[in-house]
Amino acid sequence: MFSHDHIHHHAADPAGAIAWYKHMFDAVEIERHDIRGGEAVRLDIGGVNIMVQEIRPGEEWSPAPRSPYHGADHFCFRVDDIEAADKVLRERGADIFDGPRTPRPGYGVLHLNGPDGVHIELIMRPDH
């Protein structure tokens, strides 16, 4: 009945956020369209849609709170090899603040900061 559609990222610098997702995660631009007067760009990252939208003039917004906090805290991509992902992201200049680490056998975890304070996790699971 339910399936994933997208994660919506309101960006202070949409072009910068789009470039970051393309650089860090090889995001592919799918479409551009208008959402209530603000341009939105849909990106695909391994089957996950990220909608990056500009803040419309006169719209009030707050920066993301510092993680962890109550509510939706982060989103996560699954990877086959956490060490390889760490190497690629560090080469690309990622702001990694935790990991990679192995919380239990067969698992790997890494956390990084994205644009606008977005907290992103990468996870490696033995069943992948």
Explain the overall architecture.
The chain is of the alpha/beta class and 128 residues long. The chain folds into 2 domains: 1-57, 2,3-Dihydroxybiphenyl 1,2-Dioxygenase, domain 1 (Roll), CATH 3.10.180; 73-128, 2,3-Dihydroxybiphenyl 1,2-Dioxygenase, domain 1 (Roll), CATH 3.10.180.10. The protein contains 2 helices and 8 strands; from the N terminus they run βαββββαβββ. It has helices at residues 14-25, 82-91, and strands at 7-11, 28-35, 38-45, 48-54, 75-78, 95-101, 108-113, 119-124. The strands form 2 sheets. It has a 4-stranded mixed sheet with strand order 1-4-3-2, with helices on one face. A hairpin with a 2-residue loop joins β2 and β3 (38-45). The two termini are 24 Å apart. The relative contact order is 0.19.
Radius of gyration, CA atoms, in whole angstroms: 15 Å
Binned strand content: 35-45%
The CATH architecture designation of the largest domain is Roll
By oligomeric state, this entry counts as single chain
| SSE arrangement, N to C | EHEEEEHEEE
The CATH top-level class label of the largest domain: Alpha Beta
Q: CATH superfamily name of the largest domain?
A: 2,3-Dihydroxybiphenyl 1,2-Dioxygenase, domain 1
Q: What would the CATH topology of the largest domain be?
A: 2,3-Dihydroxybiphenyl 1,2-Dioxygenase, domain 1
Question: How widely separated are the two ends?
Answer: 24 Å
Could you outline the blueprint of secondary structure elements for this entry?
Layout: E1 7-11, H1 14-25, E2 28-35, E3 38-45, E4 48-54, E5 75-78, H2 82-91, E6 95-101, E7 108-113, E8 119-124
Parallel strand pairs: 1-4, 5-8
Antiparallel strand pairs: 2-3, 3-4, 6-7, 7-8
